[in-house]
Amino acid sequence: MKVKDYLRIESATNLSRSEVGRLGTVILFIVAVIVYTGATFAHVDQLFLLVAAAVVGAYMAINIGANDVANNVGPAVGSYALTLTGAIVIAAIFEAAGAIIAGGDVVSTVKKGIIDPADVSDPNVFIWVMMGALIGAALWLNAATWVGAPVSTTHSIVGGVMGAGIAAAGWEVVNWESMGKIALSWVVSPVTGGIIAALCLFTLKKTIFFKSNPVESARKVVPFMIGAMTWAFTTYIALKGIKKLVKVDFTTALLAGFAVGLIAIIIARPIINKAAPALENNRAGVNRLFTIPLIISAALLSFAHGANDVANAVGPLAGVVDALTSAEGGSSKVAIPLWVMVIGAVGISVGLALFGPKLIRTVGSEITELDRSRAFCIALAAAITVIFASQLGMPISSTHVALGAVFGVGFLREFLETRLGKVVENVLSQHQDDKDFAVTEQVLMTFRNAPPEDKQRILDEMKRMGSEAIIDAAQRKVLQKALKRQLVHRASLFKIVSAWIITVPVSAFLAALFYFVLRGMMVP
User: Fold this and answer.
1) Residue 216 sits in the same domain as residue 250
2) Cα–Cα distance measured from residue 262 to residue 307, given in angstroms and rounded to the nearest whole number
3) Do 21 and 155 have their domain in common?
4) Residue 130 has pLDDT above 70, yes or no
5) Could you list the residue range(s) of the whole structural domain that residue 27 is in?
6) Are residues 143 and 54 in the same domain?
7) 3-state helix, strand, coil in the chain (%, to 5)
8) Cβ(360)–Cβ(70) under 8 Å?
9) 3-state secondary structure string across 67-82
10) Helix (H) or strand (E) holding 302
11) Least confident range of 76-80, 309-313, 481-485, 507-511
């Protein structure tokens, strides 16, 4: 046997070992859920249904961890502010903390009023609807994770509830006004997040990176950027992260955020002034100032996600528990039991640790290249967008907001590259005769690969070249084609947007299918 054949077999064996290990961990978690549910609710008449619902809820939570949490920590990993292991540990801790400490408030089991339980009067039918919704949404999340497409947990469960509800009670059971708002959010969420992130990054470029002394500029600007992020996240957590513990109105949250933001500026300024002399006077040096804010933002985003999306995702499981353990059957609003929240929290941590790295890499590095300043803008945009969307009463997806911010950063970079490329064309168009094409080509390719802050210096050098920067029209066309760069990976863009578009209908179809399967199994 050749060495390369041996290495190939060894690599395949290691892969199979890791897959078996992940599968074994998932099975252990599912068995633990079965044992706990069976022992705690042994008195329930239809115990097998409750155990089955708990297993499906755990499966749903695992898929949330594998897919949805990547949006919170992906930019920090892609910018190397956090290692992949560090990101997984932080996200797991704060997701669980958010779910258990601040989550589980009274929430709609039918996900923001998509269907009316009064139209599903039979408790058994209601149970089948909720279980079908969970299975359909979980299977779609699993498939999206497998192909590497980050999608919305919120929209997946919405589609699942809608599809199973239609299968049980017809089209009229759906609240189409709510569905219309959700459909509108498919466009509004990513566009708003992208615009805010692009504006933030453009501000950093104009005030820091395009300056001759970026570190000195950063000493003046970065404390205020950190203050803005502190304001945004304080307001965000006050409105969305601790609503179970304390009710805070929008104005109070804004004022509290503003006060904490001012304190952050006061604290950050001397720290940055002390660190500045040791920094390289370039983009890499400035980026080091954003490391700690990025780590904190990843933790806070995870906490808020755990407090909100986890509760919503296991809402259907809470509906099944309520229908099986109460005399009144399913109701439109139920308090999510602590043990259900624990299943959601632990399931998310398991899914993130075992299957999350694939989507974290997608968000952090495969869409566009991220450094810490760009990742900072993405986190800030996500917090601001969710704050104002919540105040307007618009149901938005944190996934769509975060990914829209990533795309906004990438497209801004492309726009700036194109604009600077046109400046090159203007320089070249002033010349008529060809003198030394090789020298010009070398300078232009250096220009193509340079960081944006270095491009102005290169343009100045080209102007000083005079006759050496002369090329003809045909050569100019060749160089223009070579200089064009796509800084947003178009294949990733197409894959993600396509997945967003089909999330609700696919989840609805799968949920309806499994509703009919459950009904066929349960009806005598």
Assistant:
1) yes
2) 26
3) no
4) yes
5) 1-35
6) yes
7) 80, 0, 20
8) yes
9) HCCHHHHHHHHHCCCC
10) helix 291-313
11) 481-485
pLDDT surpasses 90 at 260 = yes
431 pLDDT band (50/70/90 cuts)?
Answer: very low
> HEC profile for 36-47?
HHHHHCCCCCCH
13 and 106 within one domain: no
Does residue 412 sit within a domain?
Answer: no
The 3-state secondary structure of 204-272, one letter per residue: HHHHHHCCCCHHHHHHHHHHHHHHHHHHHHHHHHHHHHCCCCCCCCHHHHHHHHHHHHHHHHHHHHHHH
Is residue 164 domain-shared with residue 209, that is, in the same domain? yes
Q: Are residues 179 and 243 in the same domain?
A: yes
- Answer whether 63's CB lies under 8 Å from 145's CB: yes
Beta bridge partners of 333: 108
Total number of domains in the chain: 2
What amino acid occupies position 494? F
Q: Across residues 159-166, what is the average pLDDT?
A: 89
**Does the residue 405 lie in any domain?**
no
pLDDT band at 514 (very low <50, low <70, confident <90, very high): very high
**What pLDDT was estimated at residue 16?**
45
State how far the Cα of 492 lies from the Cα of 487, in Å rounded to an integer.
12
Q: What is the distance of C-alpha 252 from the center of its chain?
A: 27
